[in-house]
Write a structure and sequence with these properties.
The structure is a single chain. This protein is 78% helix and 0% strand. Helix 3 runs antiparallel to helix 4 and helix 3 packs parallel to helix 7. The longest helix is centred in the middle third of the chain and has 34 residues. It has one domain. It is mainly alpha-helical and 208 residues long.
Length: 208
Amino acid sequence: MKPAILWVDIMNAETLLSILLGIGLSAACGFRVFVPLLVMSIASYSGHLTLSAGFEWIGSLPALVTFAIATFLEIAGYYIPWVDHLLDVIATPVSVVAGIVVMASTVAGLSPFLRWALAIIAGGGIAGTFQAVTSLTRLTSTATTAGFGNPVVSTIEAGGSLGLSLLAIALPIVAAAVALMLLALLYWPGRKLLRKLTTSPDRGPAKL
């Protein structure tokens, strides 16, 4: 594909909106894995969201029920001590996969190669980054409040995932802007927090 043609494809309004939709949903996957998938399933099942070819199954009734159960279990698990940390470990790779899936399932107007490249780089990358930040936030909450503040963190994360998912469906441009703004705001504090948590009294701060 020639660069000029690629540029026209990317600048197509429908394609651009679908990419922004994917960015918003991918960011939401970083807070909770199954909430964005459930929102997508409901939106598709009700006719408010058109999915890319090959991903129509997300809007099926069996998928909707499965995502609803998975969402309930995921949210409930984060309110159980120790289970929340186990979920963080599991959610890190799973959120990346979820980010790839939601991006690939929403992007329209691109070739399969470009769609999957965008899904892996942007979708998986954004979801993984937000998941890493939430994990660090939980570690900090555990260290500073002996875990008593974790339910508050869990509530904020679940609410953020739901809110960002709904915003992505309704207003993709705004959702993507919010996601990128949060990413910019959280990057440096998260990096400093990670450096602090990995500091060894004998070896000094870890080099990141």
